[in-house]
Amino acid sequence: MTHPAIRPHCVAVITGAAAGIGFAIACRLAQAGMKIVLFDKDQQALDTASSMLMERTAQDNILTVTGDVTSTASLQALFDHACEFGEVSVVINNAAIIQGAGPWQTSTQWRTVMETNFWSVLHIQQLFVPHLLAQNTPAAIVNLGSKEGITTPPGNAAYSVSKAAIKVLTEQLQHELRQHPAQRVSAHLLIPGYTFTPMNFPGMTSTTVKPPAPWTAAQVAECLVEGMNKGDFYIFCEDNEVSWQLDQRRIQWSADDMILNRPALSRWHPDYQAAFKTFIS
């Protein structure tokens, strides 16, 4: 069964759509007959992505909008153009940055990450959710989470905090949508594994050879559609090194830190290394 929001001639809006997972999702939804709105701040990459997508679908099914997710004006323009393009039924909040910032580093670094990874998603929800509910037809919002927002490994606090916030925001969104009488709009949290994208491989080109460990972005896009079709809220993606079973054990260990009153992030605490290795084995 196909998720009712994924239907021909309706509009899918995708941020950060010029490359990586965003572009892969655009290709997959275009394959399902949807009209695609590609939103990105990189004009050259956006033009390239649009040209590549037009090789797979009709030209009048593609709309590009150039803008920055941290700009209120850009997001309003995205909303206006998308609604003019047709009936919006899928919104994919994919744009994000992985720029590092530690627990006491400058506010400027933190604000950059949070504006891109969290506040932009909230703003897009504020624009699109009332519109989707008013349409009273099947629709879905997908927010891109991260395993780092669940197990919160040390080393990039700002990114982990931003993705933890996305997890909670999307959970709250789905709960509120479930209370709506029609229950026609759903929310989903896509949680990629290690993926072969420009975020993880800066400077990669079309000729860069993919290492064995990561999944392709196309595999993540397929996982998303399969998860939505099953009605999943948490859509976990594996990769070629980490199975879903291992992810489950890591998540369980993190949750048990509170229940068992262990030190924060005990998975990386020297006194708990042996116990963790035994647990995941």
From TrEMBL:
Record-stated family: Belongs to the short-chain dehydrogenases/reductases (SDR) family.
Species this protein is from: Proteobacteria bacterium 228
Origin organism lineage: Bacteria, Pseudomonadati, Pseudomonadota
Keywords, in A-Z order: Oxidoreductase
Pfam families: adh_short
PROSITE patterns: ADH_SHORT, PROKAR_LIPOPROTEIN
Molecular functions (GO terms): oxidoreductase activity, acting on NAD(P)H, oxygen as acceptor
Classification via InterPro entries: NAD(P)-bd_dom_sf, Sc_DH/Rdtase_CS, SDR_fam
SUPFAM superfamilies: NAD(P)-binding Rossmann-fold domains
Keyword match Oxidoreductase: yes
Protein name: Oxidoreductase
Record carries keyword Kinase: no
